[in-house]
Amino acid sequence: MDLVGRGMSWDEGDVRLVPVEWLKAHEEIKPKNMEKLLEMTLKWDGFTKPLIADKATGTILDGHHRFAVAQRLELARIPVVCIDYLDDDTVELELWPASELESISKQEVVDMALSPDLYPPKTTRHRISDYLPPIHVSLKRLSLLTPSQPVENES
User: Fold this and answer.
1) Phi, psi of 62 (to 5 degrees)
2) What's the rounded Cα separation, in Å, for the pair 126 and 7?
3) CA-CA distance, 66 to 34, in Å (whole number)?
4) Residues 6+ apart with CB under 8 A from 149
5) pLDDT of 89-110, one tens digit each?
6) Alpha-carbon distance 18 to 51, whole Å?
7) What CATH number corresponds to the domain at position 54?
8) How is 16-66 classified by DSSP, letter by letter?
9) Are strands 60-62 and 92-95 parallel, antiparallel or unpaired?
């Protein structure tokens, strides 16, 4: 899963802290990558990059490994930028060259996220933006269960 530049840009005000259980993966992760990210997240004592997810369904478009780290740490919330995935024509969906699929639609991605199954790692590639606002949200803050709220940097 990869996001590359499409002219969209976000700032810190677009990042929300949402309940981890609201999010839904559509791809498997690479365990070694998750372990490395877990190590760095503990070193930084927080998240420094938000996930991107569909605002209607919680389908994760970017950040499956960060999501897995949040689950492993049993966090209550995670920083996310929510977008209108199905209706935003600037969000382009492609398959990675090594994917076993011949084609895919946005609706199929959402359907997979809503099912008990997952695509293999690096199946989809979304063209959205290569810029996400730099953030730092402490693990302590993410462990507190409160309603979805805007992020304010703690550094």
Assistant:
1) -145, 130
2) 13
3) 7
4) 16, 17
5) 888 899 999 899 999 999 999 9
6) 10
7) 3.90.1530.10
8) EEEEGGG-B--B---HHHHHHHHHHHHHHTEESS-EEEETTT-BEEE-HHH
9) unpaired
- pLDDT tens profile 48-81: 999 999 999 999 999 999 999 999 999 999 999 9
How does pLDDT run across 108-144, given as a tens digit for each residue?
999 999 999 999 999 999 987 656 778 999 999 999 7
- Matching residue, tokens 């959402």: 110
Structure tokens at 89: 């024509």
Distance from CA of residue 32 to its chain's centroid?
18
| Residue at 90 is within a domain | yes
Q: How many residues does the chain have?
A: 155
Cα–Cα distance for residue pair 105/93, rounded to 1 Å: 7
Q: Which domain holds residue 87?
A: 12-148
Judging by beta carbons within 10 Å of its beta carbon (0-12, 13-18, 19+), is residue 144 exposed, middle or buried? exposed
- Whether residue 129 lies inside any domain: the answer is yes
Q: Does residue 87 belong to any structural domain of this protein?
A: yes
Q: Could you give the number of structural domains in the chain?
A: 1
- Let me know if residue 38 belongs to a domain: yes
